[in-house]
Amino acid sequence: MSHALPFSSRTRSRSALTVAGIGAAVLVAGCQVVDGERPVETPSVSAEDVTSVPTPSDLDVTPVIDVSPGGPQEEDHVWQGLAQAVSSGTDAYVHAWVHTYQEVPEDGEATLTPDTPDSVSITVDDASVITEGQPDFYLLDATVEVEQLGDSAFSLTVVDAETRSDLLPQGPDDEARCSADDANERIQAASQVHADVLREEDMEQREQLRLQWGASPAVWWGIQRTGSALAGTDGESAGDFLLEACQPYLSDEG
């Protein structure tokens, strides 16, 4: 199985997002808190069109189309989607990205477990439905039967390996997101909105974020992890997840 990057290479000097710039964005995202609420200096960015993805009325599987941030079930919609498939007794169409430092085999059975404590564990019987994106990001893409082995462990049996493009979020990929002129401000703002989503359990806003950022899985992972860190520390810590997500496209300038 080929593990080629899905994004074309880009010279470091052309990237709009710099190491210093994204570092500054993360630092700003983690300071200036008022009474435990989100940071007051949320960047102002222009509105962005979000393409809706209607669910076909005849869809007979549970769609699990997201990026796992790792961590507890209440924050991981991949985990929630697999549990829903089990509960409803249906197969699932899984198009799920997982960030893990574990080695993933190219054939036979494979297990994906996010590198965050207390995460879901997903074992699939055919590793050929897993492909690697940028380093340490893996995509599981298949229609599967789902069996829950424990509270956080799922066993998947591949039924069909065809990609359901009609169900996937549309938008810029990771390279385009990280290289945009307003990348720092736009990604930082999304992270702060996601922190609010977690505080307020705003599932409608969360779905809008998924549709807006789901086509750039590494950045969407970074937004979720950063939002979780901000929400969990009253805005005092953001982590370096956005830096890791955009690392392949960063310039050392700035």
Automatic annotation (TrEMBL):
Residues 40-61 are annotated as: Disordered. It comes from the Bacteria. This is Uncharacterized protein. It comes from Brevibacterium jeotgali.
